[in-house]
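Let us practice reading a record.
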Amino acid sequence: MNPASAGPDERPSVPAHQPAILHAEECVAGEPIRMIGNVLFPKLVAGDGEHSVSILQNTIAPKNGPPLHAHAFEEFFYILEGTFLFEVGAAPVQAAPGDFLHVPGNVPHVFQNTSDREGKILLIARPGGVEKYFAEVAAQAVHDPGNLAALQAIGMRYGIKMMGPPIAARNKPA
């Protein structure tokens, strides 16, 4: 879609409660989402349905990353700090600060912070709503972290299909 030709009803509206500035460790509403080696700071949650967008700052522990997964929404990753190995489809991509990656919807992908220190990315999801998934996973992980079936069920509710282990789990010596 060409933003210049989009009608006003096709653009995400910025919520009235959106602050003029959010500092690095601040969220648009509530507390950061802490889950499984990540701290997510929702910065913008705007619009409804297919024209919505979510923007989150994600702080990722060293050598950490999600399992291989796919979902219908597209994601964009802007690397702020650290170095990352992404696999988008079957293609490995090294990413460093300033790099910008696009993952189309329904493409299996995985990434890992390859740094020896925390890494930071800006995650943009379109359509938005992924922050709700992260909040549910975080709550489940606190209450019953070993219940993989419950974590999988949360993913399915949001159209997120887990397809394999994180990169770090695949690279562990036998």
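A brief commentary: Residues 1-8 have pLDDT under 50 and may be disordered.
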